[in-house]
Model the fold of this input.
Amino acid sequence: MHNSGDEAEPDGGTAGDLAASQASGLSRRGFLARAGSAVMGAGLLAGYGTFAAYALRYLYPAHPREQDWLLVAPLAQLPKGAALAFVAPDGQKIAIARQGEGESAQDFVALGSTCPHLGCQVRWEGQNNRFFCPCHNGEFDKTGKGIGGPPGKAGQSLPRFPLKVEYGILYIQVPLDSLPRPV
Done:
């Protein structure tokens, strides 16, 4: 008996399957190649889409960083020329220096104490009226502008933080990102 539609072919299919695939113009190998390409393309799109979403979230945050005033110290604890290290809730290290004899916020400066050159810790040198980075002799003036060493050559500055004085106490305005929010 000869039944042409049910005869087995060498690749395991039947003659009817072969005739149907040839009629549609797509072989099994061609189908698998296209399916594999489609899966790889979908994976690439998902990867690039995830990257784009993270990049956009970083560049355009949903809300500005919440900031508030935090207590630093009573003015009496900081004589002229003295400095103290302050760590903001988000982990930023800040150097607060008293540069004047008065009791207003203008007599103090609060600058990020991480050098923009290589990330070393900057310290206030009251006797030299400057901030100094010991890693590569980076110098910053009393406002935080780079004046010597690699930061001076690159025109880099230290970030500045607002200060205020109320009832003899010094306060600094910093981001509150790491503080728990009230429920």
The CA atoms of residues 77 and 126 lie 16 Å apart. Residues 67-175 form a domain with the Rieske Iron-sulfur Protein fold (CATH 2.102.10.10).
